[in-house]
Amino acid sequence: MLSDMIVYEAIARRDGNFWFVEIPELGLFTQARTVDEIDGMARDVIALSLDVPTESFGVQVGVRR
Q1: pTM
Q2: Which among 1, 4, 61, 7 is positioned nearest to 34, based on CA atoms?
């Protein structure tokens, strides 16, 4: 990852059978079924919202229980 790459925080919270994922800096939300899906789902919603490739930014996932 490049040092000047933008990194967005994704905060994941368990909600029943899903993980509710918030990207607070952009006011975006998504969900994932497993912890392993959180990064990909966060990347997808960010990329779609900003109209950029999923590899053009970083994501830092924080899991809150």
Answers
A1: 0.90
A2: 61
